[in-house]
Design goal:
- The chain is α/β, with parallel strands linked by helices and about 290 residues long.
- The chain has helices spanning about 20-25, 40-60, 65-75, 80-85, 100-110, 130, 165-175, 195-210, 215-225, 235-240, 240-255, 265-270; strands at about 10, 30-35, 75, 90, 115-120, 140-145, 155-160, 180-185.
- Helix 2 packs antiparallel against helix 3 (about 65-75) and helix 11 (about 240-255) crosses helix 12 (about 265-270).
- It is globular, with a radius of gyration of 20 Å.
- The mean pLDDT is about 95.
- The protein binds nicotinamide-adenine-dinucleotide.
Length: about 290
Amino acid sequence: MNIDDVKKIAVIGAGNMGHQISLLCAIHGYTTTCTDINENILKKAEAFTDSYLPGRVQKGRLTEEQARAARDRITFTASMEAAVKDADYVIEAVLEVLDLKRKIFADLDKMAPPHAILASNSSAIISSKIADATKRPEKVLNVHFFNPALVMKLVEVVQGPHVSDETREISMALCEKLEKVPVHLKKEVDGFLLNRIFGAITREALWLLEMGVASMEDIDKAQVYGAGHPMGTFRLMDLTGIDLTYIMGMEAFRETGDVRHLPSPSVVEKYCNGEYGQKTGKGWYDYRDK
Ligand SMILES: NC(=O)c1ccc[n+]([C@@H]2O[C@H](COP(=O)([O-])OP(=O)(O)OC[C@H]3O[C@@H](n4cnc5c(N)ncnc54)[C@H](O)[C@@H]3O)[C@@H](O)[C@H]2O)c1
């Protein structure tokens, strides 16, 4: 099998990631089926598709004909069996729960054609933990898109020890067809590339603050004006949610036993005070008068 044999893509899960990944595939010429067990989520995904495509035409990014063709290529269905029965490539984007993903991959193995590659968009569950639920482990890998998937260019393609070179090559080539920038991880590692790098930056920024070396404003300024980051660690945490920083740190510690993942004292304090960032009006910065 090679990249030219990939004509039909099925996306499992139509939530935050799945609905955008489906649309991305349809826009780039793939017959795409998007499935979800939740009918409301499917309806929302379809409504998003119907509003997004005309918007792209208005902005001059797609012609009317291209938008119409993309719309014709995408279908939404609550039946996973119907979605994957003739798929060449499947991208799973369901909730981040290991048992659920294992069950879905076992089902996909039975429902999808034997040649189909089964990719997981998981941010944290490596495919080694899922591949043995199937009889085709060499075709099961992590292909990690970033949010929002229609916009963010990076995709991490993670080649665990069970993944064949053919599967990796087709997955990298598919990302390029989708106008993404794929990077190849030659080993499975917790957090993959970017979340690890950001984890390290976040830990350093918190250490500098807690040691009293500089204020959070100045640490953020250093990142923005010295490193060209669009925002510093503290602004970013306020945007994504300090609760998420806390929960992900605890999860990563539980998973790996590595104490570097434990949330730092100031993050624990913010979490316990319910100061999660913009969504609660206060996090590192105060948003209540805005
Ligand atoms: N949200 C992000 O920023 C982000 C970024 C990169 C990767 N991811 C990963 O993508 C995956 C999905 O995340 P999300 O944010 O889109 O989650 P989400 O909660 O928005 O969507 C998950 C969807 O899966 C559906 N689902 C649950 N069980 C199902 C089943 N049996 N069959 C079909 N659909 C089912 C749910 O109804 C829901 O709509 C996770 O593994 C996550 O780690 C998320």
